[in-house]
Each structure stands twice: as C-alpha cells, then as structure tokens.
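Example A, followed by Example B.
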Amino acid sequence: MHSYPSLLAMEDAHLVRYVSFMQSPTTLFSIFGSAQKLEPLPARIVGVERIAPAFVHLVVEGEQLGESPSSVYVPGQEMIVDVGGGRRRKYSILRRDPARSCVELLVFVHGRGPGADWAASARTGDTTRVTRWRGSQIVWDPSARDVVFLGDETAIPAFAAIQRASPGRGLIQGGASLGAALDFCGLRVERATRGEALLAYARGVAVHERTTVYVVGSPPSVNAIRQALEARGITRVRAKAFWGKSRRDA
C-alpha cells in the first residue's frame, strides 16, 4: 500500500503555478539551463517498497528537494542519483512533495547494473547524494491539447507525472510486472506484452495538430516509432531512449 498518499495532492496543488510560469521561453531556459550547474547534495531514503518483482518504489528526502524560487519542477523531469561506486543514474520523478522536501521514484529493476543493484538493495535510512531535477525531452507540454504516450516500463514514472498535468491516452508495453506498476502510479493507458504493439499503435493512433506524442524506450524502439510517426506527418514528437545495454553497464 502506498505509504505517502499526501504527495499526489501536494504535487497537484502546485500545478497551477507552473502553467503561466512555463509559458515563458526565458523560464524554460533558466530551468533547463541552470540545472546543469547544480552540485550533488546529501539526501536520505525515507521509504522503500517493492511493489512488484521488477519495480522498487523509493521516497527520497533532502533539503534541496523542498520549495524555493529557483527549484521549479516540471512534471516528467529527472533527478540524478549517486548509486555507489562513483556512478550516477537519472530517474524520472514520479511525484514531488515540496513541503516535506521529498520526491518519489519508481525504479524499474531490469537485469544487473549499478542502478538496478542500488535500487534492489535500498533500505530506509540509506544515504546518497542527488542533483535536483533537470530538463528532459520527456516533460509536460502545457501547449498540448491532446497527449499520446508510447513506451516501455522505464517510461511509467515520467508518463504518470505528465498525465496528472495533461490527461492523455496511449500504450505501455512490458512484462509480468507491468500491470502492478501502472496501477500503483495510476497511469491510465492500454497495456501490451512485448512485440510490435507499440509500432502498430503509432501507425494507427488518431492525432490532431495540437497532439503531443511522447516516445520512450530502447534506442531501436524509439527510432522505429519516431520514424513511423514522422512518416504520417506527425511532428509534435518528444522522443528519448531511456535505456540501453551500454548505459546500464556504465
């Protein structure tokens, strides 16, 4: 059971501030540009829950994760976490509670690697260092009037955060733990097992000129889906490869 029910309400209460703030190109530059200069700061894990064999839910607390004029968070943004051994990993923020200086992460534990090993072994009270949220291609688009989500398990936290700001539809493809993760996050999309379902969906989904399509997955999958969308003349595409073997092992 989710131990931090207030986080969803707290995050939604702040969305109204983002709408007008995010319309400004100057604001976008300051958010996405200045984030590159932030230094890692201490943080502590205050909640751990294995919601499914392949997913670990973490609540991370740190003074720098609280509210401040320079810390505007946009749904879908990532946070950089030290995972040990001098390695760092980016994780999309599932929810944020600025009043309690907390963020929630939902880590997909696939195979072995520094990030997967860190999440699988995480315990309440563990300390780490994090760099506050930064820009990403997969962030809330306040100009969108329709949203389509296409991705695999790694997309779930970002898509769930964006969908709370802009309700949308789409398809997530994955394995046995997929349903539990979607239900936990409240992400309302169609579900499919691995195969060509995402590509078929991209070739047939109905869109209009104000539809933003988000695409997340492995490099080959992202490239194939983006090409299928572009072949249909769909230009409002935000695509990013969230994982690959070289990234997992580095």
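Example B, a separate protein, is given below in the same form.
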Amino acid sequence: MLGVGAFFILGTKLKKALSNVREIDWARLAAFIDGEGTVRVYKAPTGRWGLRVVISNTDIRLISWLEETFGGYVYNVKPSTGNTKPSFQWIFASRIDLILAPCLPYFIIKRDQAEIALAFCRTNVISRIRSKKEEVSKTREELKSKLLVIQKRGAA
C-alpha cells in the first residue's frame, strides 16, 4: 500500500511526464472524454474512495495513443455476445486532477463532471486530517451524488 510520501512521489513523476504533453493533445483528450469517456467516482467495499477516467473504443489505436501519451492502463473488454466487437478501455486512476485540469478549457459536454471530479480530488488533502474524515466522507458522498445526477439526466 502506498503511503502519503509515495503518493507525492508518484504525483511528482506523473506531473513531470505530463509536462511534455502538447496543447493539442489535451484538446484531443477532452474531446475523447466528451465523446467516448466517463468520469467515475466509486467507494470500494473496503470503504476506500476511488476516482477514474475511462475511455472505451473498439479501435486499439486510440487506446494505445492514450496510454503512450498520458500513461494509465489498457484493458481488453471481452464481447458480451457473439455479435459484439471486442473493445478496449483506457483507465486513468491516479491523480486524475493532472489530466482533467488541463482539459477544462476544451470540454464541451463533460466540463461539469470534470469540475466535480476536481473538487473530489481536493478532498484528498483534507482526508489526511483525522478530525476531518467524517466531513470529507460526507462531501465525497455529495459530490458522487451530483455526478450521478448529471450522468443520469443525459448531460453526458
């Protein structure tokens, strides 16, 4: 399990790697999140919160480009029926603030979801203060609910 120090080191290395991403690629990422992606907030059975960006597509070239450009993980999704093409998912789950913030100016559909996710990310710092854990959990539940309402109403 990573401690706070490891989280900081991971974030520092990730920031450095992402500092080389071109502006056009941030715009492309925003467009792919708008059209093919989702922002997910979840609470694991262990009680631990998670946040991720997922982009799905049947063309591995897009998914490979995302992994090469931004990092993250690639998963092969098996078809649920015989008539369905195999698809691939790119998942970015660590420090998603580092990919959502540069995309903000370029979002057309999912800007409000990205802003909620960024607000969720800001709770990470507060969550390390023992006396604030209950307050942080309540805030995260509220943010998750807001995100689900937006996604349910079809505002992507």
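On Example B: The mean pLDDT is 85.
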